[in-house]
Amino acid sequence: TITEPDALGDVAATLTVTNSAATNSDYTVTVSLVDDKGIRRGTGYTAIEAVRPGEKAPGDVFTTLVSEGTYTCDVVAVTRSAS
Q1: How many CB atoms lie within 10 A of CB 31?
Q2: Under a CB-based contact definition with an 8 Å cutoff, are residues 43 and 29 in contact?
Q3: Under a CB-based contact definition with an 8 Å cutoff, are residues 10 and 66 in contact?
Q4: ∠ at Cα 58 (57, 61), nearest 5°?
Q5: 75 in Cβ contact with 29 (< 8 Å)
Q6: DSSP code per residue over the chain
Q7: Is the pLDDT of residue 1 over 90?
Q8: How many C-alpha atoms does 44 have within 13 Å on its Cβ side?
Q9: Which long-range contacts (CB under 8 A, 24 or more apart) does 2-8 make?
Q10: pLDDT for 15
Q11: 54 to each of 17, 20, 23, 26, 46, how far by Cα in Å?
């Protein structure tokens, strides 16, 4: 989900991971922010640590991309490792 621009006018996003593994897991998620013309305007990252089995956990993606229209957030990569 794309959030409202922050005080500096930068775009941010929130996302949720669900741990389907049998052990606690750490996640690194890479997203791209794409404008309404389909052009990638920025990339962001978040790390979510110690997610228990079956648990959903939120993550915040902060960018320095200035809000200049409408963006969508596409997940590019997810890396999971045991906690």
Answers
A1: 22
A2: no
A3: yes
A4: 145
A5: yes
A6: -BPPP-TTSEEEEEEEEE--SSS-EEEEEEEEEEETTS-EEEEEEEEEEEEPTT-EEEEEEEEEEE--S-EEEEEEEEEEEE-
A7: no
A8: 25
A9: 2/33, 2/71, 2/72, 2/73, 5/66, 5/67
A10: 95
A11: 10, 6, 9, 13, 20
pTM across the whole model: 0.85
Contacts of 7 (CB under 8 A, 6+ apart): none
Amino acid at 25: S
pLDDT single digits (tens) 25-81: 999 999 999 999 999 998 999 999 999 999 999 999 988 777 887 888 999 999 999
